[in-house]
Amino acid sequence: MRVASAALAVAAALVAAGCAGGKSYRDSHATKNLSIRTASSARAALGVHSVDAQCRTEYLGTVALDRPSAEIGIPAERWSYLVFDFASSGLFTRQTRITLETLLKPRAGYRYEANVTYRDDLYNVVIREQSPRGAWREVQLLDLAACTK
In total, how many domains does the chain have? Predict the structure, then answer.
């Protein structure tokens, strides 16, 4: 029984590490322009990638979404590729992993909010933008191919 418990603990740790994506996102931006609010019954993480002029991505790190909220800085006036990763499992169910990916090109002086939810096998990410004058609007989630436009 102890061997089975230890094996389950190791498997859970490996799943959590996979969800975390390896390294933590080291945001060096003084302006924290993205608030992330999480309401999830699953393990959730946000992978942050830079996007170059040829639409190639480079992994910058992961933000564990293990708290109700987080604040990070995303570079303004250039594309970033955000990958929201949800992983859940139950005692009698197999692990489920779902990702939702989007491009985001924050505007200087604007604030962004991502509301991340996962309940009962339904996941959702809504990103909103707040202008310097205070009005909020929902931002359309974009596929990576949109970076060429």
Answer: 1
Taking 50 as the threshold, does the pLDDT of residue 10 lie above it?
Answer: no
Q: Across the strands, what pairs with 136? A: 130
Q: Which tens digit of pLDDT belongs to each residue from 53-88?
A: 999 999 999 999 999 999 999 999 999 999 999 887
**Token output for 36:** 């992330």
Rg, the chain, Cα only: 17
Residue 57 structural domain: 2-148
The string of DSSP codes covering 30-55 is SS--EEEEEEESSEEEEEEEEE-TT-
Query: What's the CATH code of the domain at 36?
Result: 2.60.40
Its pTM stands at: 0.80
Cα pseudo-dihedral 115, 12, 61, 96, rounded to 10: -50
